[in-house]
Amino acid sequence: MPLTTPPRPPRPFDTPSAPTFSTAQRSAQARNKPYNLSDKKAAEIDARRYEERIKREQAARILESSEMLIWYSNARNESIPQTRQYFQNIVWGFEEDESGVVWREEWDGEGVGVGSPRSAKGKEKERERGKKRVGSGKYVGV
Q1: Would you say 107 and 115 are in contact if contact means Cβ atoms under 8 Å apart?
Q2: In what ranges is there compositional bias, type Pro residues (predicted)?
């Protein structure tokens, strides 16, 4: 006759009093991230931070490479300085609201027949001032 012992009743400390966590929750808890799945707002904030960090890193890579900057400039139909400013704003964390940015072309004018920003009289006055300037007894012309 084999000798068998009856199973012991569970002890109080053996019973799971703490909630059981999934592997994803344990992983998040170990990395000091919000592990409570009911806290959706914190998870969304973390996701946005991650996306923003990735976007900033990508913008920094583009700024480091002249060729990539030129390619993006061409794709965005902008000049290289405009594109550089756009990616610098992303790296610096400024809002990228493109709807409010109006880039003017050098040939765009305020009205019809707009010429030089200085009038002819302004140029004549500037020439007169240049003729009157004298430095150390020598004539200084424009």
Answers
A1: no
A2: 1-13
pLDDT in tens, 98-117: 655 666 767 776 655 555 55
Give the helix/strand (H/E) hosting 139: strand 138-139
Per the CB < 8 A criterion, the answer to whether 89 and 52 are in contact is: no
CA diameter of the chain: 131
Give the predicted TM-score (pTM) of the model. Answer: 0.43
DSSP H helices in the chain: 23-30, 40-64, 66-76, 80-92, 120-132
Q: CA dist 71 to 54, 56, 109, Å? A: 20, 18, 28
Phi and psi at residue 92, in whole multiples of 5°? -75, -10
Higher-confidence residue of 23 and 83: namely: 83
Per-residue pLDDT of 5-29, as tens digits, reads 888 776 666 555 566 777 877 878 7
